[in-house]
Amino acid sequence: MMRFFFGLGLVLAVVGAACGDANEIASTAGVGGGGAGGAPVADASSSSAGPSSGSSNTLGEAFTVTFDTITLMPGEENTKCVVKRVPNDGAIHVGNIHNVLSEASHHLIVYRVKDAAEQTTPFECQPFADLLKPEKGAPLMITQKHDDTLALPKGVSFAFEPGQMVRLEMHYINPTAEPREASASATFYAMPDADVKADADLLFVGNPDINLAPKSKATLGPTFVPVPAQLSDANFFGVTGHTHRFGTKVTVATAAAKGEPDNSVYDVADWQWGEPETVYHDPPFQVPAGGGFQFTCEWNNTSDQKVTFGESANDEMCFFWTYYYPSQGAFVCVHTDQVAGGVNLCCPGNPFCSKIFE
């Protein structure tokens, strides 16, 4: 069988190819999404303050949920989650999300989920696992910066039911010899219902075929990944590249097919892996009919060890995520050459997605 592990985002390692041929694996793609409701509680807060950066939407009341402070022992690294209820009494449309992370927080993923009960005490959780389980919810925003705002385009939102449940998934690390503290918060800014024209969602794309020799520079790509057919008319408006500490560059372009001329949509001068810039497109861009994304990652492995793909901050990754509308659900798409002939897989919806977390 073939199994993919998704961590940070997505830890993908091929451990066998006995589950079928590459064409069958890549033959379908699916749709995620959704949220659930309930009554609001008092451990989160609401206000009318504005976000830390501008938005084209008219923003009103703000609703905050927190991943409360935990103490990390020297050398400790883990991923933990909390599930909390947003204190919105009625249904709202969210036009901005503002995340704040402490210094020891490596990244934060905010999900809209369908849980019935809160889990306010941090618990160990599998990174990004529920992205492939749309019945449980879908990611809204991924943050690696310590202060990060997702500003949705004018008229675009995330729909929240009354007392919307969200999960905050925090990957944290303490590389020091002293205890450190980690915490995070997510603030959701409502916009007028009358302004809403479409809902947004997220596409996450990557390549796990990383093998960095000690004391060397390396490039992976360009990698071509076709977008799911459901996104043929999608308007993509924000792109963020992602590696770990040895990463020096991520570039992303659209193309009609592998090897065809491409159109750059993400190429940041002096790109920083620890504070990767989100590039916004106004107007949004579309992928050519039947086409996809072509992306490249670069590294400088300054360590004395070989570095491969993995979820630890001491491993490496090659991903980007992009926000789009109108929503067809959240997707993860990956390409690997660890299967003979190469393979593309988009989840959820592909019949092999169910085998990933068996």
Primary descriptors:
mainly beta; 47% strand; 2 domains; Jelly Rolls; 1 helix; globular; seven-stranded mixed sheet; disordered N terminus; 358 residues
CATH architecture of the largest domain: Sandwich
Number of DSSP-assigned strands: 24
Rg, nearest Å: 19 Å
Q: How many domains comprise the coordinates?
A: 2
The CATH superfamily label of the largest domain reads: Copper type II, ascorbate-dependent monooxygenase, N-terminal domain
Termini separation comes to: 10 Å
- Tell the overall outline: globular
- Provide the succession of SSEs: HEEEEEEEEEEEEEEEEEEEEEEEE
Counting copies of identical and different chains, the oligomeric state is: single chain
- Main sheet overview: 7 strands, mixed
**DSSP helix fraction:** under 10%
CATH topology annotation of the largest domain: Jelly Rolls
Number of helices: 1
Strand content: over 45%
Poorly predicted segments: 1-54
The CATH class of the largest domain is identified as: Mainly Beta
Arithmetic mean pLDDT: 81
Structural class: mainly beta
